Amino acid sequence: MKNNRVALFITCLVDLFRPTVGFASIKLLEEAGCEVVVPRQQTCCGQPAYNTGDRADTISIAKQVIVEFEDYDYIIVPSGSCAGMISKHYPALFSQDSNWLDRANRLSKKTYELISFLTDIMGVDSVDSEFQGTVTYHDACSGLRELSIHDQPRRLLSSIDGLHLRELDDANVCCGFGGTFCVKYADISNRMVETKAEQVIATGADTLLAGDLGCLLNMAGKLQRDGVELNVRHVAEVLAGMADKPAIGVPSKD
Amino acid sequence: MTESIPSQFKENAVRQLADEDLRQALTKSKGHFTGGRQKSIDNLPEFEELRDKARDIKNHTIENLDFYLEAYEKKVLSSGGHVHWASTAKDAQEIVLNICQTVGATSVNKGKSMIGEECDINEALEAAGINAVETDLGEYIIQIRNERPSHIIAPAVHLTKAQVEESFRETHTHLDPERVLDEPPTLLEEARKVLRKKYFEAEVGITGANFLVAETGSSIIVTNEGNGDLSQLLPRVHIVLASIEKVVPNLEDASTLLRVLARSATGQEFSVYTTISTGPRRDEDLDGPEEYHVILLDNGRTSMLGTEFQDMLRCIRCGACMNHCPVYQSVGGHAYGWVYPGPMGAVLSPGLLGVDEAGHLPNASTFCGRCEEVCPVHIPLPKMMRHWREREFERHLTPNAYRKGIQLWSFIALRPNLYKRLTSFHIRILGWIGRRRGRFSSLPMAKGWTKYRDLPAPEGKTFQKQWSERS
Ligand code: SF4
To answer: What percent of chain B has pLDDT over 90?
Structure first.
């Protein structure tokens, strides 16, 4: 039998802002037959340092992640950009260091973004959840372009009765988040997310989904600033049947 | 003209974002470029194969650049042309002026050339009392508006039709003020009429080159208006201004590159005119220039050879990266402050101007990766922008606040226990403060964020805290 001991790399944004995504991930993984472990010594994948050009710190963080996660069968990440960081960019950090390069390569091969892992590796083609409403889906850039995640979330969403997916114009165009970009170049980022928000509204959907929390916080924050009543959620929440929780940026009722 | 420089990218961007005409113009052109490209490659099943081939051709040539340049030079000489080597933009200017002055030129026709922009050829000519006339419609428009190109293949893409009409009416005062000028064809017709006369006045024609062919000593230009042909055929002297990485081994290679170029640029299968010129007029030729000069410009390119930026020299200037770049599409080309805008400029400009001068450009990207996705020669643009950021970081050019902030975050990230202690405390407080509204409209430590959007409040306890309490 296949070994399915998976380590959840929770990502710092989910850890800090949206634990629900973590619980949704665990639920989906367990339902797919995985044994889920949450390694304790985890923080951030190193993207902020990496994208600022701070290679030394990035390498230290990458080593920490490798040490903590390399003993599991799979490393699962509910974010395309953090999964891409580990699987596509860690090996590039160690081109001069063959020992660490080997370890980074091994980790890279077993690291997956959550949704594509469920469909592509675990063979999940439907979920047993309920949802009533019209959703639209934004393809976050790293997941789409580094990991080719496009059909997988749509396929799983289409298995939910009562859920209608209405495609978003320019779904593959960046929402303007870009990590530190959104504060460093706030004015430009704003134009980008403004355009995205207009297109989201134009779909008439009541819920906006994506697979990366950074982008979701950005889009939710913009829609709410503009007073638009639209729920924004990580796609895993809907797939796991946890859409009864308040949406991103919405207060809980109690 | 508002002069912008790369070091003021942020200020430039703010100014451009406020320009409603720009927004309109860009919205209009964007779909045209991206949709056109998509359609044309959908019609060509072997496009991906061609891209790989195009990349390999350029790589091979760049790895053997000295060989192919020498071979090219020999062929130009044997066909009766002259070759001039310019290591800087200033050198190129001097060579151009020299040629023009030797033949006593008072008027010069220009086909579109980004190398001409890089060398400020128009300014140099004007300063020497020589009249430079841009013959490409887009270039002509921005010349009469005293502006710079905002795009490498569509220089006037930042303008609306109405702005162009206004400029024509202001400039062509000899024409009937009642004439109708509200559609692109009428504008083109008018520019044609005005330019037609000038073609015959010029003693020198300057064009760029899309490719230089080592095998034959030819230069190739592609245009959609045929202006390049007239610029180079009618005057007595033809000057080709090209940078050294434009050379390719042979015509076969050039045609492979032409096939990906037009599709990536405008979605055409081929540009309307592809013009190959080799040397001056031969005895049996009906027309053509008496003198043929090629100026080969380095201007910092050889210093990119052998570095992590060498791949940038593959660029065939199709413009697809900027057509697909959400940052370029927001701020327009002028924000970048120099000749080359968009993703290709964000990598090339620091290479040619220095990262001190152009350091903003590789930072102003979300690394969304769309540029690399569409680049016909597979240039890993985001990766190279990151390399520039690394150089800036090493040299302490990264703004101090960000540097310190990132290092503090890394310090915490490298200490999981500290991370957990700090976050479980602060996030709980933040979640508690935000619990009523679910979000913050302003937060002192997140001003860049809350200037334009709310910050969703954390749900409450961190995931790790909750998880540890469960197990
Ligand atoms: S970098 Fe690539 S996409 Fe951009 S202009 Fe050059 S060849 Fe075209």
So the answer is: 82
Note whether A20 contacts B459, CB cutoff 8 Å.
Answer: yes
Spatial neighbors of A200 by CB under 8 A, at least 6 apart, are A136, A138, A168, A208, A219, A223, A230
Evaluate if residue A24 carries a pLDDT over 50. yes
In the predicted model, what is the mean pLDDT of residues B28-41?
93
Least confident of A126-140, B38-52, B181-195, B329-343: B181-195
Task: Give whole-number Cα distances, B232 to A94, B27, B227, B262, B278, in Å.
Answer: 52, 34, 9, 21, 11
- Residue B3: per-residue pLDDT: 57
Paired sense of beta strands B204-207 and B211-213, if any: unpaired
Q: In chain A, how many domains are there?
A: 2
Q: Are A8 and A19 in contact (CB under 8 A)?
A: no
Tell me how far apart the terminal alpha carbons of chain A are, to the nearest angstrom. 45
A57 touches chain B (CB under 8 A): yes
B contact residues 428-467, partner A, Cβ 8 Å cutoff: 434-439, 441, 446, 448-449, 451-464, 466-467
Per cent of chain B over pLDDT 70 is 99
Closest-CA distance of chain A to residue B424, Å: 8
* A208 phi/psi in degrees, rounded to 5: -110, 130
Inter-chain residue contact A15 with B446, CB threshold 8 Å: no
Grouping H, G, I as helix, E, B as strand and the rest as coil, residue B284 is coil
State which of A101, A120, A139 marks the end of a domain: A120
What pLDDT does residue A1 have?
A: 44
Quickly state the pLDDT bin for A185 (edges 50, 70, 90).
very high
Strands of the sheet containing B204-207, edge to edge, are B82-86, B291-297, B237-243, B204-207, B107-110, B131-134
CATH topology of domain B6-10+39-297: Rossmann fold (3.40.50)
Per-window interface: B 71-100 vs A, CB < 8 A: none
Q: Does a structural domain hold residue A72?
A: yes
| Contact yes or no for A179 and B366 at CB 8 A | yes
Q: Are strands A74-77 and A5-8 parallel, antiparallel or unpaired?
A: parallel
Judged against a pLDDT cut of 80, whether residue B4 lies above it is answered with no
Give the pLDDT band (50/70/90) at residue B225.
Answer: confident
By most ligand atoms within 8 Å of CB, the mutation choice from B59, B261, B309, B317 for ligand 1 is: B317
As a whole number of Å, the CA-based R_g of chain A is: 18
pTM: 0.96
Global ipTM: 0.96
Same domain membership, residue A116 and residue A133: no
Position A244 in a domain: no
Task: Read off the pLDDT of each residue in B160-168 and give the average, rounded to a whole number.
Answer: 94
pLDDT given for residue A2 in this prediction:
58
Ligand 1 centroid to B244 CA: how many Å? 17
Residues of A in contact with B452 (CB under 8 A): 186-187, 189-190, 193, 222, 225
Give the HSE-up count for residue B294: Cα atoms under 13 Å, Cβ half-sphere.
32
